[in-house]
Amino acid sequence: MRIIFIHGISTQPTNYSERLYGRILAACRARLKAAGRSDAAVDATLRRLVHHEIFWAELTTDLTNRYMDLSYEHPKFFWDVLTQPLDPLFIQIMAYIHDKGTKVDGDMNILRHVESEFRRIFHDNDLGQSEPANSDRKAIVIAHSLGTVIAFDYLMGFRRYKVHHSIDVERFITMGSPIPLFTSAMGHPDSDLSLPPQVKKWINIRSPRDGVARPMKPFFRHIPIDEHLVHTKFSPLSSHNAYWTDSTTADLIAAQILSSF
Fold it and tell me: For 2-56+109-259, which CATH superfamily applies?
């Protein structure tokens, strides 16, 4: 079972999801032990999980760096210090919107990259075989913020990009997701989309204090989405990023992983 993380905006250092993944493993272990599993059985179950991360922010690096050079070449004023960290985030959001909105049948850099990463994770040559050579073709996709929009577009088969038919996405888990803002802006506040056959279940996790996160159920009338509230930090920005360190979020994800075996 591949556990695949897709980050939102900001820089994406290697192992950005390691802390949350560690909490998820600990929650899985606790749940299995509470169910009476032996240490050997617990270890065997957890060994079936393989941690992966998909990085996409580097695709916007050159654009962001050039913008920053032009915008902040003058001496820094007080307000520059306040606004400068936000600029790269806005550039990433608008770069994806531009990528998505202007290429009707053409190439989309970020979705093409996500597709190549899925093929790498599931061994490109192996996808054409009737039986996988290395392990099963099951995945849990966990995405945050703009990463949920990217993952949603890919899993739903936006334009010509879609997950390979032999891969089963047992759970699509979104955290702090603004997906309804994007689907509404594309002209579909009342979506008639259904989950593709490979995607078994969609779970949305959000904090009521998160200024970015939106509920999903009102916008997708044909998809039975499981909604879960978690109470992260107090401020809207801190709350939006705190899923990565939140124990309740980790336990919710652990429950979904274990139920997908």
Answer: Alpha/Beta hydrolase fold, catalytic domain (3.40.50.1820)
